């Protein structure tokens, strides 16, 4: 880590905090944000924590035109003892740099940005909700800010980290969802940007999501963009299937986002001696497993829901009812263990927890 | 067209205009810009022309995170008589709405936005350069502005139109370029957003573009994302091949952007009784045509270059030298006719020209 300092400009007033029961994802933000700019030849510079506020940007800023941007998403959790925990944040920093590489954005100093995130979280720690299942969502993102509308990598960028308190994902207990297999639209394709966490992938997904919602489904299951046969992801989650006692998940293939939760689920299952197989999985094979009764569970994984059991999967004219539409044992065990580790209610044998504490207090 | 009014706030000062010889694409903007906002339930509202300036936006504005945005690109030309001409601008308005539909952005009133563009161009008409080959580039774009980081279509948008004087694309005469066929990265795929003019497609293209530039090529030729066999586009242009007296261009297939220049070239060729065939074209078939000597010309088409002849095409370990690396007759004829129509030097038999004049003067 290079020598960096973070300028601090504390907010003079504190915003009112929302009521815990009314927390909605991503609408309310804390008192401060972290900003850092990139230019040639300065590189990343001017790291600062300032009051959360709108910023001024030129209408020709490249990000508005050519979508050169990346982002991350992770959470801070309060333990019952009042400690603040992050879950594998270094994984998010690494993925941010992998996304940067794909999008031709200059790399960040991972250790420094993680340090900055911890300072920001500690400064706004009163915003971390404490009720069961609540947390503070952390959104780092980088946009291209050069005022130039030529199609080329920008020479100027801005990294911003904002924080948003979020309510419990499952207010009435973990609950299986209805998913539709998407046959027309694709999220991305091998050789595209699917491995990267970049806006365009999400923009591309909106239409299919909107159409499936109208039909009463929660999310779509994305098939590969080449043959439209192989399973990729579920909405903005990775996906797993338990078949005949073994757990399968699509192998990383260049178009699937490598989820931190996916990686943690794989490690946890291996720790439990449950066989995990990463391979290409076709809808046809999954359907056969369903027909012969060996498809036992299906679930999505991601930072937001942790584990999202799939109770029904609709594919063309077929409906697969999985585990009688109920949450399966593996899904529940994974959910419980992961959340207990995240919230510091269970020992973390994997070194996944990163503590935010006094050491991250702003000195000024 | 509904009843709309445009508020005008004229710039108190006029910026200095760049020297015509030093005009670079997309770096300098005129004195004014057009803005219009969308919200629920107001719809599109608050249409206004204001001094060109940065604007303030929340860091949680959706466009920064999920890339829900679209844009257009067209030009205004001065004729030798001092008339101001647009070239088929209604096509750009139609395409903007097609892009909107794919990106779940509410449609615009095409006639009204075109009207607003004409007012803006007329107000800043002193910025339209008059030297040979120069023009005023018009960039309408829409970004999603709702301060919310959930993955869903935004409920708030901003449409902005900015203007930038551009120099001649070919300073030393029309000149063939070296193109590399891209085998690893893809721009988009069927079921994706390729048909739409949206940021993510351009973000996805940067990496391949950067790698090919390093190897001395001007642009990449994109193959289809499914089989990596069929020709799609060249950089940000559509592509044509003259083979045995006939002109071929990839048929619109859901992943190719429908260029206004492409459409105009097809009409012009038909007008000249040159057979034009829109069909799926594989690199293999093109290579065979090259080997048997029937590949006569290749060129890209787009608003920026109009016609960009391809002198060399590199595919895997093969180099195709087309028309001895010189500009072919069809390429030159198309370039001359299209630019002569655009600049009002030749009669427009197609009704392509739309005049900007006194009627578009701001009344206030
Ligand atoms: C497309 C996509 N896939 C998968 C995931 C799951 O990744 P993680 O477990 O790191 O949250 C996410 C989001 O977070 C995502 O956006
Ligand atoms: C990807 C892409 N293809 C083709 C074109 C050509 O379209 P037009 O002729 O309308 O400029 C453009 C740009 O303008 C483009 O961005």
Report what the structure shows.
Chains A, B: The modification N6-(pyridoxal phosphate)lysine is found at residue 197. Chains A, B: GO terms for molecular function: L-isoleucine-2-oxoglutarate transaminase activity; L-leucine-2-oxoglutarate transaminase activity; L-valine-2-oxoglutarate transaminase activity. Chains A, B: Belongs to the class-IV pyridoxal-phosphate-dependent aminotransferase family. Chains A, B: This is Branched-chain-amino-acid aminotransferase. Chains A, B: Its EC number is 2.6.1.42. Two copies of one chain form a homodimer. With 364 residues, chain A is of the alpha+beta class. Chain A folds into two domains: 7-167 and 351-361, Aminotransferase class 4, branched-chain amino acid transferase, N-terminal domain (D-amino Acid Aminotransferase, Chain A, domain 1, 2-Layer Sandwich); 177-327, D-amino Acid Aminotransferase, subunit A, domain 2 (D-amino Acid Aminotransferase, Chain A, domain 2). The first copy, chain A, contains seven helices and 19 strands. In chain A, strands 1, 2, 3, 5, 6, 7, 8, 9 and 19 form a nine-stranded mixed β-sheet that branches. In chain A, strands 10, 11, 12, 13, 14, 15, 16, 17 and 18 form a nine-stranded mixed β-sheet that branches. In chain A, α4 links the parallel β10 and β11 (219-223). The mean pLDDT of chain A is 96. Chains A and B meet through β4, α1, β8, β9 and α4 of A and β4, α1, β8, β9 and α4 of B. β4 (55-57) of chain A pairs antiparallel with β4 (55-57) of chain B. One pyridoxal-5'-phosphate is lined by residues 73, 233, 236-238, 257, 259-262, 301-303 of chain B.
């Amino acid at each position: 880590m290079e020598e960096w300092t973070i300028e601090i400009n504390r907010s003079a007033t504190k915003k009112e905090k929302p009521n815990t029961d009314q927390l909605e994802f991503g609408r309310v933000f804390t008192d401060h944000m972290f900003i850092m700019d990139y230019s040639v030849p300065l590189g990343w510079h001017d790291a600062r924590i300032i009051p959360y506020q709108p910023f001024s940007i030129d209408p020709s800023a490249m990000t508005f035109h050519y979508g050169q941007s990346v982002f991350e998403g992770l959470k801070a959790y309060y333990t019952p003892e009042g400690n603040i925990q992050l879950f594998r944040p270094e994984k998010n920093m690494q993925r941010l740099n992998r996304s940067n590489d794909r999008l031709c954005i200059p790399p960040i100093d991972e250790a420094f940005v993680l340090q900055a995130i911890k300072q920001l979280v500690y400064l706004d720690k009163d915003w971390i909700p404490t009720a069961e299942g609540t947390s503070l969502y952390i959104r780092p993102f980088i946009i291209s800010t050069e005022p130039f509308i030529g199609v080329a990598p920008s020479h100027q960028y801005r990294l911003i980290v904002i924080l948003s308190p979020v309510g419990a994902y499952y207010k009435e207990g973990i609950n299986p969802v209805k998913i539709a297999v998407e046959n027309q639209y694709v999220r991305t394709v091998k050789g595209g940007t699917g491995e990267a966490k970049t806006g365009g992938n999400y923009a591309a997904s909106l239409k299919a999501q909107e159409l499936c919602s109208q039909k009463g489904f929660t999310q779509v299951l994305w098939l590969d963009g080449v043959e439209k046969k192989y399973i990729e992801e579920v909405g903005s989650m990775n996906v797993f299937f338990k078949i005949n006692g073994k757990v399968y998940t699509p192998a990383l293939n260049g178009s699937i986002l490598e989820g931190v939760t996916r990686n943690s689920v794989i490690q946890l299952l291996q720790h439990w001696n449950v066989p995990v197989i990463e391979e290409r999985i076709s809808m046809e094979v999954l359907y056969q497993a369903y027909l012969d009764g060996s498809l036992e569970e299906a679930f999505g994984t991601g930072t937001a829901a942790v584990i999202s059991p799939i109770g029904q999967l609709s594919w063309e004219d077929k409906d697969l009812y999985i585990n009688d539409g109920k949450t399966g044992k593996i899904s529940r065990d994974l959910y419980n263990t992961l959340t207990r580790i995240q919230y510091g209610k269970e020992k973390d044998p994997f070194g996944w927890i990163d503590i935010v504490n006094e050491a991250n207090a702003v000195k000024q």
